[in-house]
Structures are given as C-alpha cells and as structure tokens.
From TrEMBL:
This is Deoxynucleoside kinase. ATP binds at residues 7-15, 180-182. Substrate binds at residues 31, 43, 54, 79, 84, 145. InterPro entries: DCK/DGK, Deoxyribonucleoside_kinase, DNK_dom, P-loop_NTPase. Keywords: ATP-binding, Kinase, Nucleotide-binding, Transferase. Residues 3-198 form the Deoxynucleoside kinase domain. It holds the Pfam family dNK. Gene3D superfamilies: P-loop containing nucleotide triphosphate hydrolases. GO terms for molecular function: ATP binding; deoxynucleoside kinase activity. It comes from Seonamhaeicola algicola.
Amino acid sequence: MHIAIAGNIGAGKTTLTKLLAKHYNWEPQLEDVVDNPYLDDFYNQMERWSFNLQVYFLNSRFRQVLQIRESGKKIIQDRTIYEDAHIFAPNLHAMGLMTNRDFENYKSLFELMESLVQGPDLLIYLRSSIPNLVAQIHKRGRDYENSISIDYLSRLNERYEAWIHGYKNGKLVIIDVDNLDFVDKPEDLGTVINTIDAEIHGLF
C-alpha cells in the first residue's frame, strides 16, 4: 500500500508522515533535503539551478515510487512525483526562472516517468493558508528557506489548489491544517487519523 502526503512548503508533511508511520507501523519515505546537492545553490541563484534541482527531485521521487511498488510494504511518502511536475517546475517557468527549452525537456522527462508508475493508493493533501506556512517555516529555521518570499508561497498555493481540484490519480483526502497541531495536541492527530481510517478501510 502506498500513501502519500502532499502540500506546500511548511504545511507539515514531514511531521505528519513520521507521526502516521509510527501510528500505523508504515515505513516512511522522507524527502531528500539533507543530501540534496542543489538546494543551497538553488535558493541563492534560482535561475541558474532550477532545472538541475527539478531533475534531481524528479529522479529521486521516480526511484522512490518504483521501490515502493516493488517492496510490497505499506509505505507513506513525504511529497509526490506530481508536485514537482504540476507545481514547482511550472511555477519556476512562469516566473522566468526556468527557460522554455529546459521546461519542455523537463515535461517530456516527467511524462515518460509518469507513464511507468501508478499514483498512490491514497493522497493526503495538507491545505494551509500563507500566514500558517510562513509561521511554520520560521519555526523550523532552515537557513536555505530564509529567502522564500510570500509571493513565491502564494504562487505555489494557487498551483496546489488547481492541481488538487483536478486530481484523478487515486483516492484523495484534504486536511485543513491551519487550526491543527498534530505534535502537541493528541486530539488533533486523532481527528486526522479518524479521517484517514475512514478512507483506508475502503482500500482493502
């Protein structure tokens, strides 16, 4: 079984992935931000490194999806292969931070990969307002995220909403995280778990 969590930067994907993995005894697949060789360069010089970063993420997530399906285990994944292709890469292209040539090359690569993989059995989308995202980003204090602008987050949020609105790759649960605190309020985590339970029982 393949569960995936989607959402904007700072929505709480990694936190919830770890909490649900522990609760359900699923294996977590986390996003590779520590060993990513492009992230620092990208945030310092987006135009120069956007294509490299997006191809790195695409390769990493394609590999993850193949491994998830081959493993036969119950796995929860932090962010999906679709978010790079439907949100991050098109946003960089629209902002003039990725050339037409690179974007067309990227899209072609994604379409080939997408034809070879299945969507997750259940997608959990964490919907968040911009003020909540900003607060969470500041709270975790990653150096390379200090330069993320509100305009950039807003553009991503718009693309997330458009993507989710047309999502047809499997079952979908939308969780509004603005007033939830999974970490310090067990009842909030319980609410999320109850919502997911209702969907999971329909998967078996």
